[in-house]
Amino acid sequence: MDRMKRAAVIGAGFGGLALAIRLQAAGIATTVIEARDRPGGMVRGSARQGFSFDDGPATLTDPQAIHALWALSGHDLARDVELLPVTPFSRLMWPDGTRFDLSDDDPAMIREIGALRPEDAGGYRRFLGYAAAVSRDVRDGLGPHAFDDRAGLARAAALLARHQAWRPLHALASRFVRDEHLREALSIQALQAGGNPMTASALYAWLHKLERDGGVWFPRGGMQALALAMARLFERLGGTLMLGDAAVEIETRGDCATGVRTASGWQADFDAVASNADVVASYARLLGHTHRGRKAADRLARRRFAPSAFVVHFGIEGIWPGIPHHSILFGPRYAGLFRDIYEHGVLSADALIHLYHPSVTDPGLALEGMSSFTALVPVPHLGKLPIDWDGEGEAYATRILDHVESRLIHGLRDRLVTRAHVTPADLGRDVSAHLGSAWSLEPRLSQSGWLRVHHRDDAIPNLYFVGAGTHPGAGIPAVIASAQATAQLMLEESHP
Ligand SMILES: Cc1cc2nc3c(=O)[nH]c(=O)nc-3n(C[C@H](O)[C@H](O)[C@H](O)COP(=O)(O)OP(=O)(O)OC[C@H]3O[C@@H](n4cnc5c(N)ncnc54)[C@H](O)[C@@H]3O)c2cc1C
């Protein structure tokens, strides 16, 4: 291939933006083509009656990876976005009244464990040792690297064997600690990447270590403020950002991607094209005119996708300093609830609720004297539970508000100023997520590493992928790492 001078990135999710910043910083003239009128993808926000909400993730881990994007061009993230610390990282609450605060304050963590089962303190230290070893290997060996050769596969196999990666995370935690609450506290992180804690690999213990090492943060103005700052950084470097115009075709000639055409009729030629759009949609819609696209889409559609998420935003009167930024309200069941979500496609009467309270960290997100909250509930994706969410959403949102009122915010309904909800169907429509999945391909060993969508297409060598459907997977830290892997491959082509 001739030296790469012009590249297109389809989609301005965090993965697409991070890739575009890396390419542009390396001197490749890069155009980002985004269907929506705002960057950020699943990291999207909404505003209602003076309250601001995040519709997707509402905290940030691994801020170093974001700092690194600014540092590529000698810029400083702190000049563009203020990251506010979130403490505790999360408060876990069970129906039996048990509470547990996760944080990086070691003595406090040991005190919390002591209140559950003092004998588990030693086991927790050993769990942390395991998580630290995985974390080192993931960072140095696997995370931000593409699987494009046998050496990559050999590295992965050695790592999987060393850390007994076939063990599920909850089973691993159970080897170290005996208290069931603690086992849940140490395995729930798998869900951040879309994994079922009962079946996802023990390697996801590294997410606990990632939080302990790098902290948990919230950008002032919400996660959407960070997405906007990434887009501005890309433009400042000279990149071109096109919003509100969906790509409809990746043009090809033979086994080469030649350009991109959009819904408005705009067309341009590129030396390389990278898609950050959902992987099924990329192959089925953007490459549907090719044999390669149709075949890959069919194969992908038969694989297992992670669940979706139902989100309820509410603004209420009063301020609630006693409710931290992030609480997790566990239901009476753990394994059974995840079986309902991942296997049976059931909307259970009980639920696991991530309750975000962003205005306790950034009061500017609510009207004075008021508070903004978001309840996020993992639910089966549209393939497992094909219900009419447009019809059912309101009633389900009310059920979730009732749960929160009975468990934590008494008198919530009387204080309600505004409420809104976002359903799996909205997620499918808004960002073209296959089956409304919030995390793309489910993270299981059989769908990880080389077995996810490759960063470089197998048949079209100047076509690349970045984001949740690729290695290392879904979640903000992972898609930022995937951008590093994809950029590395593209830049090797550009400077052979
Ligand atoms: C409710 C919810 C909660 C979550 N919670 C967490 C969490 O706590 N922690 C965590 O780490 N992760 C969480 N995630 C997952 C995380 O948000 C995603 O894994 C990550 O944002 C995906 O980024 P991405 O770059 O792969 O792509 P996406 O964010 O999916 O962006 C893809 C972009 O491509 C655009 N696009 C699609 N088709 C086209 C087209 N034809 N032309 C142009 N543009 C197109 C879309 O509009 C979108 O902007 C959550 C997700 C959701 C939905």
TrEMBL record:
Cofactor(s) of this protein: FAD
Keyword Secreted in record: no
Entry keyword set: Carotenoid biosynthesis, FAD, Flavoprotein, Oxidoreductase
InterPro entries the UniProt entry points to: Amino_oxidase (IPR002937), Carotenoid/retinoid_OxRdtase (IPR014105), Phytoene_DH_bac_CS (IPR008150)
Keyword Ubl conjugation: no
Domain Amine oxidase span(s) in chain numbering: 15-491
The protein's annotated pathway: Carotenoid biosynthesis
Entries under NCBIfam families matching the protein: crtI_fam (TIGR02734)
PANTHER family according to UniProt: B-CAROTENE KETOLASE, PHYTOENE DESATURASE
Family as reported in the entry's similarity comment: Belongs to the carotenoid/retinoid oxidoreductase family.
Name this protein carries in UniProt: Phytoene dehydrogenase
Name of the gene encoding the protein in the UniProt record: crtI
